[in-house]
Amino acid sequence: MERIDVHPTHTYKGYKLRCGKPSPFGANLVPGGVNFSIFSSYATSCTLVLFEKHAKEPLVEIPFPEEFTIGNVYCMTVFDLDYENLEYGYRMDGPNNFQEGHWFDKSKILMDPYAKVIGGRDVWGVTPDWNDIYHHRGKIVFDDFDWENDRPLEIPPEDQIIYEMHVRSFTRHPSSGIKEKHQGTFAGIRDKIPYLKELGVNAVELMPIYEFDEFENSRPNPQTGEMLLNYWGYSTVGFFAPKAGYAATGKFGMQVDELKTLIKELHKNGIEVILDVVFNHTAEGNERGPTISFRGIDNKTYYMLTPEGYYYNFSGTGNTLNCNNPVVRGIVLDCLRYWAAEYHIDGFRFDLAAILGRDPWGAPLANPPLLESLAFDPILAKCKLIAEAWDAGGLYQVGSFPAYGRWAEWNGKYRDGIRKFLKGDGNVGDVAQRLQGSPDLYAWSGRAPATSINFITAHDGFTLMDMVSYDGKHNEANGENNNDGTNDNDSWNCGWEGPTDDFGINTLRRRQIKNAVAILMVSQGVPMILMGDEIGRTKYGNNNTYCHDNELNWLDWNLLEKNADLFKFFKHCIAFRKAHPVLRNQWHFRNCDYMGSGYADITWHGTQAWDADWSDSSLTLAFMLCGKHAKQGTAEDSYIYVAMNMHWEAHWFGLPGLHPGMKWRVFANTGATSPHDSWEPGKEPVLENQSGLLLGDRSVVILVGK
């Protein structure tokens, strides 16, 4: 057994030192002290800077002796430190030549990219001291959290129902009904677990929770004077550290335990946790941005640079991480392994993931090393990997993202196709593909329906209520003259732009929302719903609320009472999906009867049974799923029939006949008024006329045959 030698060999200003271990990177507790390890290819010297917690000036600055370098790693153990009251950073010296890509400046104190806790933004929204010589301060963490035998849930992908949320927005509104100090925090989500369970979702996808600076690019709103912030957090300061401002205990440095407690409680209640991770760029921005960490440590290694030394900007935010450099690939792998192992995270959604497949000059790689490494990593083997399969540089890879049998995709084509169908554009051929889990995109390469993360709304773009209330975006409050945010919303305001007292328009809008969730929950693949859509949340037509810490983003919990019928409909549709394995197939439909039931696994219908209208102008479509062809490993299911009429007139739909002794029952009819628009699974009433039904204008009906 190797003996660990803990004896110091050097002293500096009373501090006892010895050459450290180069691996792992970061600041890690070792017997008797702390091991500091940091990499730089081009630095000529490195100095460790230690602060007492919150101190303005350093406690001590300790240069790394030359003999404390191994390869390109500076590593040193410092003994007898009061690590709980310590903050640390580095000064790096080396060449400073813009065209050659070097930004070394020993006057700047740099944050450790591997810092597990970061101070300096401990409480949300507290204006920083702009004269501070060191803004984002690495801290040392001692992990003694009791997980009580918790482990990731490993819910089969096809059984997932994802709820995308923003940590602060979910409970920040005064109407949330939780104690004030928990509002807008990890603890606040924990208080709302009963709500998530009642809704029925079994995975939450958290918008970025890594440490970021909400004051990045902050500015007054030209209309109101209110401060606009970096609210969504898609601009990472530190990849390993949870956001202190998202913790009720952040000012005490307890954000690690608060987040772990939330994850443990979600797991106890059968809910997975997926993190939205941003490895395509950092908060250091372009040539005019701040030097926080990577730029001052090894700019040429960490970022994609033009031959003239400028930053490539495939992210749309100023810089692009050089993800397929082996060193950068290493930090991404180390980061995800850390979150999977130390935080029991169930999966990751990768923002602008197409960037992760570009070479150092921006060209798409045929076999991207990072994506392959993530797919085959042994520690991440059970984690869900979800790609936003496009980037701001124009690379769109939905259906062609390098998957290695592991990667799922946010299916932007699902969103676009269903939205167009809902507003009456026809396109039934495209809709049929989306309903089946997009076999046109995934079956050819052997990828399962669960590859497709189906969504109609997400944090980017309109909420579901706004999708049916606005023809165009209304982003004036962002201070960018309504030029930001997408113009391609495929939305329809149902006859009036914005809020109205018109009963007919409001009734149609609610029906369209129910149509959307009904279609989403009977589609093969993985459904994802946006926080608040289930209770009719609005952002008043703003489709890019990235900068607002106010009621444009906060979820108004008064809507739960106001729109109780919407919540009930969502809840019933989610429960129906869970009750019927035929809606959650592991493999794509074969369009044939391979179980000998007398029916193919899926059959298509129109206003007449067995006769779908596939013409470009068609606004009606129906399909039936045979329960004997249910998901492998499950008992025989019922038959499901779904009829969709997006025409502005009612139509009679003839029904396919069932086996003797079976009857069609009505689970949902969006054309009916609440409470008769949906039923609890298992309590569906028998349909009066078993040969057909009248489907109202712009309505969806779901029948169950048993």
Chain-wise SSE layout:
Elements: E1 10-12, E2 15-19, E3 26-30, E4 33-39, E5 45-52, E6 60-63, E7 69-70, E8 73-79, E9 86-93, E10 96-97, E11 102-103, E12 117-119, E13 137-139, E14 162-165, H1 167-171, H2 186-191, H3 193-199, E15 203-206, E16 210-212, E17 219-220, E18 227-228, E19 236-242, H4 255-268, E20 272-277, H5 294-302, H6 326-342, E21 347-350, H7 369-376, E22 384-387, E23 407-410, H8 412-422, H9 428-435, H10 439-442, E24 452-455, H11 464-467, H12 503-521, E25 526-530, H13 559-562, H14 564-579, E26 602-605, E27 620-625, E28 639-645, E29 651-654, E30 664-669, E31 692-695, E32 699-705
Parallel strand pairs: 14-15, 14-25, 15-20, 20-21, 21-22, 22-23, 23-24, 24-25
Antiparallel strand pairs: 1-2, 2-8, 3-4, 4-8, 5-6, 5-9, 7-8, 9-13, 10-11, 12-13, 16-19, 17-18, 26-27, 27-28, 28-32, 29-31, 30-32
Family: Belongs to the glycosyl hydrolase 13 family.
Pfam family, one: ISOA1-3_C
InterPro entries: GH (IPR017853), GH13_cat_dom (IPR006047), Glyco_hydro_13_N (IPR004193), Glyco_hydro_b (IPR013780), Glycogen_debranch_GlgX (IPR011837), Ig-like_fold (IPR013783), Ig_E-set (IPR014756), ISOA1-3-like_C (IPR048650)
Entry keywords:
alpha+beta, about 20% strand, Glyco_hydro_13_N, Glycogen_debranch_GlgX, eight-stranded parallel barrel, amylo-alpha-1,6-glucosidase activity, about 700 residues, six-stranded antiparallel beta sheet, Immunoglobulin-like
What is the gist of this entry?
Belongs to the glycosyl hydrolase 13 family. With 706 residues, this protein is of the alpha+beta class.
